[in-house]
Design brief:
Elements (H helix, E strand, L loop, with lengths): L8 H33 L7 H33 L1 H19 L5 H4 L2 H29 L7 H5 L1 H23 L2 H14 L1 H12 L6 H12 L7 H7 L1 H33 L3 H29 L1 H24 L3 H19 L2 H6 L7 H10 L1 H4 L4 H12 L3 H19 L9 H19 L2
Helix pairs in contact: 1-2, 1-3, 1-5, 1-7, 1-8, 1-9, 2-3, 2-5, 2-17, 2-19, 3-5, 3-9, 5-17, 7-8, 7-13, 12-14, 12-15, 12-17, 12-19, 12-20, 13-14, 13-15, 14-15, 14-20
Length: 449
């Protein structure tokens, strides 16, 4: 798996993962706190438990709405000025927003200003995370050997469960050492303040890498032919199939992830009656397995191809809800942990190949814009709404079956997208740039430029 590794590739992987760990520690800390804390401290005490959780998830969804905007803005300037600079800025931005969340007054102190300020900071956090993903995976994908791109580019994805584990460990320590009243009063804030330490470490590591030679060459070529447009409009004009296929690939995967790691917390807390400590332990084990599974699946995508691996994930993903929620109803530690862990293993079959398959859809000069658009826009109608829809379905029907059907339908959409996706295993990224340059030259000749 690691033969013929280009010089500095491991450093690039570490830099991408460092930032991904930081940003997803903060992003998913919010998701966990939405159920355990925010529904209690940022909304009126007269609101019912499920409605308060629903409102907390509504603020959670704001981050997803901001992510496509961040993806478009960061994608535009990332294609123009480089991946590294934008990645450093996104790290500082999400860190500042998360730290300030830990400083917010409660509903009891300032009333509706509390959820209002929370929404504003959540928007900033989502904007920054929206710009993070494309830059992190492209920094690795563009440095990777053609035949090993699936494996190496999956490592930034593996940073997501690491960030989750960090957030879970911090919350476990805090809930174990503090009374419930102390945790709700001030203990939860410590988890958000600790983000400042992690941000500084991640920022330092990212100063030690440079953009890939293929990006530098593409940048010089763009200047030579004066191709100054790097906008989302041009990506949609030239590569609509890539953008919409990426959206379809993302749809079922994104919904599944937030049902497994976010809504499951609500289901276990409200429907099963599990205590906070047990829920965090379930998630900690599952995140650890998810971290191990992602690079393995990335390697398999180099061996078997992107499409077969993704098909396995989409097909198995459609079945997860039907067996996982009944397993959770048992309340047994091993059975519940197995249900969540299986969900994340299945998820890895869709998540791990994403960086490679999406990077292989676009030429270098507009790759950041293309992958960010395809990846982040989908989150508005997928991940952002998944916990909200699931909570409402549970409230209306009192059963997990409608939620399972919802997930199955989402995975069916992704399955169709996979069938329309071209197999790109081992493709040379330079060949995409050559084809793109020839197309641009042909257009310019026809226009007499």
């Amino acid at each position: 798996m690691t033969s013929s590794i280009p010089t500095g590739l491991k450093r690039v992987v570490a830099a991408s993962m460092a930032g991904t760990v930081v940003e997803w520690y903060e992003f998913f800390l919010y998701g966990t706190a939405a159920t355990l804390v925010f529904s209690k401290v940022f909304f009126s005490e007269t609101t019912s438990e499920l409605n308060a959780i629903f409102l907390a998830f509504a603020t959670y969804a704001v981050g997803f709405v901001a992510r496509p905007l961040g993806g478009v803005v960061f994608g535009h300037y990332g294609d123009k000025f480089g991946r590294k600079k934008l990645l450093q800025f996104s790290l500082l931005l999400v860190g500042a927003a998360t730290f300030l969340m830990g400083c917010l007054p409660t509903f009891g102190q300032i009333g509706y200003w509390a959820p209002g300020l929370l929404v504003a900071l959540r928007f900033i956090q989502g904007f920054a995370v929206g710009g993070e993903w494309g830059g992190a995976i492209l920094l690795v994908a563009e440095h990777s050997p053609n035949k090993q791109r699936g494996f190496w580019a999956s490592w930034p994805q593996a940073g997501v469960p690491v960030g989750n584990m960090l957030a879970t460990v911090v919350l476990l320590v805090l809930t174990a050492t503090l009374s419930e009243s102390s945790f709700l009063s001030w203990g939860w804030r410590v988890a958000f303040w600790l983000s400042a330490v992690v941000v500084l470490i991640g920022y330092y590591i990212r100063t030690k890498v440079t953009d890939a030679p293929i990006f530098v060459a593409a940048q010089q070529e763009a200047e030579k032919i004066k191709a100054t447009s790097f906008s989302v409009v041009e990506v949609l004009k030239r590569y609509p199939r890539g953008v919409f296929t990426a959206m379809g690939l993302r749809f079922g995967e994104n919904i599944m992830y937030y049902l497994v790691v976010t809504f499951s917390i609500t289901y276990l807390k409200v429907q099963v009656g599990a205590d906070t400590s047990s829920i965090l332990w379930y998630l900690l084990v599952a995140h650890a397995v998810h971290f191990a599974a992602i690079p393995v699946v990335g390697y398999l995508s180099d061996r078997w191809g992107r499409r077969p691996v993704y098909l396995v994930g989409a097909i198995l993903g459609s079945t997860w809800g039907f067996f996982a929620f009944p397993m959770m109803n048992s309340g047994d530690f091993v059975i519940v942990t197995t249900a969540i862990t299986l969900g994340l293993i299945i998820h890895a079959f869709m998540y791990a190949p994403q960086p490679a398959i999406m990077a292989e859809m676009f030429p270098t000069r507009m790759r950041y814009s293309g992958v960010s658009l395809g990846y982040q826009v989908t989150s508005i109608v997928a991940g952002s709404l998944a916990p909200l829809i699931a909570v409402k379905l549970l409230e209306i029907y009192g059963s997990s079956v409608p939620i399972s059907i919802y997930l199955a339908a989402a995975c069916a959409i992704t399955l169709v997208a996979v069938l329309f996706t071209r197999e790109t295993k081992g493709v040379d990224l330079e060949s995409l740039d050559i084809a793109d340059a020839e197309a641009v030259a042909s257009e310019r000749n026809r226009a007499g430029v």
